[in-house]
Specification:
By secondary structure, the protein is an all-alpha fold. 83% of the residues lie in helices and 0% in strands.
Length: 122
């Protein structure tokens, strides 16, 4: 496993745990779909900082360009996440944390490809 892949998995795991932790607290007060969005917003900053400093530290783009591109990448990942989350939660009636976990795993692959080859292009 390459160093970049290791750090991507470590940072992604930290961001996913942040996302799930915020979701677990917020879902008590908000609709699950809104709690998911709040978790995404908080985890976005964990993810960007970790990926810029660790996963893709040799990026050939400026921090500003990477931030803008990663924002687009993350929003695309969140769109996939939210669609899968709603399908699992509302249609298949899965427990909310399990649905969120599966949705996060689904979106992770997409985020890696877009991050590696576009947002933090080397």
């Amino acid at each position: 496993m390459s160093t970049s892949t290791f750090w991507f998995l470590a940072v992604g795991s930290a961001a996913a745990l942040t996302h799930m932790g915020v979701f677990a607290i917020a879902q008590r007060y908000l609709w699950p779909e809104v709690a998911n969005a709040l978790g995404f917003v908080i985890a976005f900053f964990v993810s960007f900082a970790g990926h810029r400093l660790l996963s893709f530290k040799d990026a050939g783009t400026t921090v500003s360009t990477s931030f803008q591109r990663f924002g687009v990448t993350a929003l695309a990942g969140f769109a996939s996440n939210e669609i899968v989350f709603v399908l699992l939660l509302r249609w298949l009636r899965m427990p909310s944390l399990l649905a969120l976990f599966l949705a996060l795993v689904f979106a992770a692959g997409q985020t890696f490809v877009l991050s590696r080859f576009w947002a933090f292009r080397r």
